[in-house]
């Protein structure tokens, strides 16, 4: 099974992903970690990661799914092309897919989360509120589970997502 958590920075994806992994023992792929590793290794020209972090994550997910492991992907997943790519990863391994969009409808709370959080990945600089607001994030046009963290705790969100496993 592949569980893909998408949503703008500061909505609670990482907190929820960690809760899911603690409950289900799935492999955990965080785009921020992959992108920072690529930047730290200086394998990219300049400081622009582009699609590289996602491409690495797709292949890591595919490899883990092929081994029969569940995978939780923690990413913004901002565009139809990234969402389609995750669906292709699941299809290529005959894996069940749960697509989740995480939002925080309370703008003040969302801003607080973004502005008050620190970096939890060495070298990573968290986004500013201005960059979150300006993020290129296309509305979803496909089915997904929608979770609003203004009303659900990480534990409640994880339980809701895991209840969609069908096992």
Structure notes:
- There is one protein chain.
- Helix content is 44%, strand content 14%.
- The protein has 167 residues and is an alpha/beta fold.
- It has a single domain (2-162), classed as Rossmann fold (3-Layer(aba) Sandwich), CATH 3.40.50.300.
- Strands 2-3-1-4-5 form a 5-stranded parallel sheet, with helices on both faces.
- The longest helix has 15 residues, at 52-66.
- It is globular, with a radius of gyration of 15 Å.
List keywords for this structure.
about 170 residues, alpha/beta, Rossmann fold, 5-stranded parallel beta sheet, 7 helices, 5 strands, about 45% helix, globular
Produce a short descriptive summary.
The protein has helices spanning 13-24, 31-40, 52-66, 80-92, 107-116, 129-133, 154-162; strands at residues 2-6, 27-30, 71-74, 97-103, 145-148. With 167 residues, it is an alpha/beta fold.
Shape: globular
CATH superfamily: P-loop containing nucleotide triphosphate hydrolases
Which spans have pLDDT < 50 for at least 5 consecutive residues? Answer: none
- CATH domain fold name: Rossmann fold
CATH architecture: 3-Layer(aba) Sandwich
Task: Give Rg in angstroms.
Answer: 15 Å
The number of distinct helices, counting runs of at least 4 residues, comes to: 7
Q: What is the makeup of the main sheet?
A: 5 strands, parallel
Average the pLDDT over all residues and give the rounded result. Answer: 93
- Along the chain, the helix and strand elements come as EHEHHEHEHHEH
Output the CATH class name: Alpha Beta
Task: Give the assembly state of these chains.
Answer: single chain
Percent helix: 40-55%
